[in-house]
Specification:
- This protein has 17 helices and no strands.
Length: 429
């Protein structure tokens, strides 16, 4: 499922690169803004899925249903509001990144259209977490396949001019994306109602508001802290990459898309650990929860190591799929080798953070992770990029330092066992 989901942005980047490197760089520069909104929704959704999983593990199915109803309402409503902000404030957001000229025009147009359809992405996020909490990951797989397939076909129609239609350029890529979100999200919701009898009612929503909202906010709000801080951290670094010029910006966009490939294993195993840990913590089987997390860590770090090594070895060829600019290819390939050092720590961070949140211990990665990011991570990035004049390579190396420090601290927290006292079933006793 994660593999299929990650291929979507790769496909968009390829279509954008057919328009121009400037178009790909402009849209790629807005990714941290778009991802910030998506991160907020995913964090809330994962917190809700973790709580629902604990209730299901404790055989409290009515409260689990109430959690699902509340989750669907909050995430979809939140997506509408975030999309509205994204749409209306797109010129100011692009200016904040320091983009100018043609790159800024592409960025503003893309962000405005994405914002207009962001509620569809929110609906998909809510349903994905709902399905994951119920262990129906195969549904998420088919939803992801439909999303990528639909997005590819619509890109062919709107960007390359299939069926004699005009070529819409950057706007066509954005329209294809939001149209696919809406179609797949609504179709999944309808199928859930017909095949699994999922029909959230006002009674479920009211029960969720009375009984689930407080633990959801207790776990969900802090759980948003670390990923939101991470995306703001990425935004801060993106503004500095813009200062380094179009070469650095373009190379970073293409390399970042390819660097998502090793994350397939990290997120896949992290999500699996989250589901298992939430159910086992709800059932108070702490030793088994610890064992599952350690297995996810071993497999996630090992596979991320091998995948990032393969990506780095094929870097010149892979980036050459997007561009023929030799300078961009050379710089992007170097970034992929730095990413090879980063990915095992990132895999550990994903599994550890997801497991801590699923167990209810969301405040620690939120507060401590944020502090490390904005001190160690930002300091190392600036020192290497501008102090040693490594440029965008230095920024990526600083991100590597940040990931390794946070992974070490999160591992010490898990080993300490405080998470065993943070679950909703423990606090509700």
């Amino acid at each position: 499922t994660i593999a299929v989901g990650i291929s979507g942005p790769l496909i968009d980047s390829w279509f954008l690169s057919r328009i121009s490197d400037v178009a790909a760089a402009g849209v790629g520069a807005t990714v941290p803004i778009f991802m910030l909104g998506q991160t907020i929704l995913n964090s809330l959704g994962q917190a809700g899925a973790g709580i629902a999983g604990q209730y299901m593990g404790a055989k409290r199915r009515r409260l689990a249903q109430a959690t699902f109803a509340l989750l669907l309402a909050l995430v979809t409503g939140g997506g509408f509001l975030l999309g509205l902000i994204m749409c209306l404030a797109s010129p100011a957001l692009v200016a904040m990144l320091g983009l100018e000229g043609e790159i800024a025009e592409h960025s503003t147009l893309f962000l405005r259209i994405i914002g207009a359809g962001f509620a569809g992405r929110a609906l998909q996020s809510a349903l994905s977490n709902l399905l994951a909490a119920r262990g129906l990951t195969q549904w998420n797989l088919w939803s992801s396949v439909a999303t990528v397939g639909g997005n590819t076909v619509l890109n062919m129609i709107f960007v390359t001019g299939w069926f004699g239609l005009p070529q819409f350029g950057v706007a066509g890529v954005a329209i294809a994306t939001v149209s696919t979100w809406a179609i797949v999200g609504l179709t999944t919701l309808i199928l859930l109602g017909r095949r699994l009898d999922f029909r959230p009612s006002w009674a479920h929503l009211l029960l969720g508001w009375r009984r689930v909202l407080r633990p959801l906010l207790r776990i969900g709000l802090p759980s948003m802290g670390e990923p939101i801080s991470y995306m703001l951290f990425q935004l801060a670094l993106a503004t500095q990459i813009v200062r380094l010029g179009n070469l650095s910006l373009t190379a970073r966009v293409y390399a970042a898309n390819l660097a998502n490939l090793p994350v397939i294993f990290s997120y896949g195993l992290g999500f699996g650990a989250q589901i298992l840990v939430s159910h086992l913590v709800g059932a108070r089987e702490f030793d088994r929860a610890d064992k599952r997390l350690r297995e996810a860590l071993a497999w996630g770090c090992g596979l991320a190591f091998l995948a990032s090594l393969g990506t780095a070895l094929m870097g010149h060829w892979a980036i050459g799929i997007f561009t023929r600019d030799l300078a961009v290819i050379a710089l992007g390939s170097t970034l992929l080798w730095v990413d090879f050092c980063l990915q095992p720590a990132k895999a550990a961070n994903i599994s550890l953070t997801f497991a801590l949140r699923a167990a209810g211990d969301s405040k620690f990665p939120a507060f401590v992770g944020t502090a490390i990011m904005w001190s160690v991570g930002l300091g190392a990035s600036f020192a290497l990029a501008f102090g040693l004049h490594w440029g965008v390579v230095g920024i990526w190396a600083g991100m590597t330092v940040d990931e390794w420090v946070r992974a070490s601290v999160n591992w010490l927290r898990w080993r300490g066992g405080q998470w065993k006292t943070k679950g909703v079933m423990h606090t509700n006793r």
